[in-house]
């Protein structure tokens, strides 16, 4: 019913993933398995809704009515068994901009912000570019599975100038779905030390292999009052080109402070098609998403089997969510530059450089497996043939 094996030509569409290869890799001659969007067509319902709206001749300023927040309320109940209210929700122009607004609203210059490293690169700039202090809480690698260093988190949260913990949940790039017990411990520590939790949950819908996402704010009432959640259908339905993200908080004081900052920067208006895309995806994309997740799981198992058979020195912990694989090349005993140069110049495959996620990404690369399996097979064979 859904053809995820279909090869869709993206050249000429100003796709970041393709058209920035020269800048990032120094050549266009690499299979692009880096930027975190998918090479799959968006759900047909989304395509139709966008096309139907585009038929109208006027593309003026837009507002978001209750159907926008209502779709979000219904989705959170359906997907995460999380009961929220319409008036807890605010549009945002993107998860990363929303994190910036929150850092500006809830901390001062010089304050500390905790992040779990290695982590999505913008987390660093969200903090440092706004003159806050990065408190790197390095994840502990236990046989490939990453865990939070709670002892260090306690020490960092207890510092008088620590104001915020940005939680990546599920985690990008390591693919962990934090358990309810782990999240409760985060909550206990942050609540104890009056540290606000900003929960980036953009990958929440993409849990795999039976894992279930627990929204941080759903833990209990106290956690809900000390948290802002950041979500979007962009990763889920491959509609990142639209501004479809939003924030959720049950705490009216937090919501007002967030809104005040976003409005002060005049970034509250939104994209004409964002509401159309979000509502159609959430209201009509459920079957498509289940089919997508099954395909992603098969892709991950395919990569896993290929590496075990032909490149056993390359390893990864099977991701519990996302379509991203955090691959260890440490057994190659090469420098990071040598690994990247080999993949680009010899294998002609473009992956994300592990050190872009922080210094603890040394020896790792991130692979995006949200492509037709034939593309993954070609890329892996190119690595294998170049390595022989």
UniProtKB/TrEMBL annotation:
Q: Which Gene3D superfamilies match?
A: Aspartate Aminotransferase, domain 1, Type I PLP-dependent aspartate aminotransferase-like (Major domain)
List, alphabetically, the Pfam families matched.
Answer: Aminotran_1_2
Enzyme Commission number(s) from the entry: 4.4.1.13
The record's similarity note reads: Belongs to the class-II pyridoxal-phosphate-dependent aminotransferase family. MalY/PatB cystathionine beta-lyase subfamily.
Has the keyword Lyase been applied to this entry?
yes
Q: Which SUPFAM superfamilies match?
A: PLP-dependent transferases (SSF53383)
The record's listing under InterPro entries reads: Aminotransferase_I/II_large, C-S_lyase_PatB-like, Class-II_PLP-Dep_Aminotrans, PyrdxlP-dep_Trfase, PyrdxlP-dep_Trfase_major, PyrdxlP-dep_Trfase_small
Q: Which UniProt keywords apply?
A: Lyase, Pyridoxal phosphate
- Protein name per the record: cysteine-S-conjugate beta-lyase
Q: Which domain of life is it from?
A: Bacteria
Q: Which organism is it from?
A: Carboxylicivirga mesophila
* Every Aminotransferase class I/classII large domain range: 29-383
């Amino acid at each position: 019913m859904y053809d995820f094996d279909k090869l869709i030509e993206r050249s000429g569409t100003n796709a970041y993933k393709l058209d920035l290869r020269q800048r990032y890799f120094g050549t266009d001659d690499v299979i692009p398995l880096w930027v975190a969007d998918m090479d799959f067509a968006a759900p047909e319902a989304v395509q139709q809704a966008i096309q139907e709206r585009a038929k109208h001749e006027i593309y003026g300023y837009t507002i978001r009515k209750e159907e926008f927040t209502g779709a979000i309320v219904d989705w959170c109940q359906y997907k995460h068994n999380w009961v929220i209210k319409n008036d807890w929700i605010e549009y945002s122009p993107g998860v990363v901009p929303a994190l910036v607004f929150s850092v500006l609203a809830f901390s001062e210059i010089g304050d500390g912000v905790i992040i779990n490293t290695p982590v999505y690169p913008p987390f660093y700039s969200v903090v440092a570019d706004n003159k806050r202090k990065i408190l790197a809480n390095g994840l502990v690698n236990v046989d490939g599975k990453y865990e939070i260093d709670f002892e260090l988190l306690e020490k960092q949260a207890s510092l008088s100038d620590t104001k915020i913990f940005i939680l990546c949940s599920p985690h990008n790039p390591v693919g962990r779905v934090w358990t309810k017990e782990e999240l409760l411990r985060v909550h206990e520590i942050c609540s104890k030390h009056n540290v606000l939790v900003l929960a980036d949950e953009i990958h929440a819908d993409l849990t795999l292999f039976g894992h279930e996402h627990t929204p941080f704010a759903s833990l209990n009432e106290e956690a809900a009052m000390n948290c802002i959640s950041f979500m979007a259908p962009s990763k889920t339905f491959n509609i990142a080109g639209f501004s479809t993200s939003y924030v959720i908080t049950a705490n009216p004081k937090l919501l007002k402070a967030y809104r005040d900052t976003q409005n002060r920067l005049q970034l509250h208006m939104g994209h004409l098609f964002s509401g159309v895309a979000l509502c159609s995806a959430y209201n009509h994309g459920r079957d498509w998403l289940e089919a997508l997740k099954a395909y992603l799981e098969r892709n991950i198992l395919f990569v896993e089997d290929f590496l075990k058979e032909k490149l056993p020195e390359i390893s990864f912990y099977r991701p519990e969510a996302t379509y991203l694989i955090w691959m260890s090349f440490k057994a190659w005993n090469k420098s990071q530059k040598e690994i990247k140069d080999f993949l680009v110049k010899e294998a002609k495959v473009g992956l994300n450089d592990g050190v872009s996620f922080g210094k603890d990404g040394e020896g790792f690369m991130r692979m995006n497996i949200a492509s037709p399996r034939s593309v993954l097979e070609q890329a892996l064979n190119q690595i294998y043939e170049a390595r022989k």
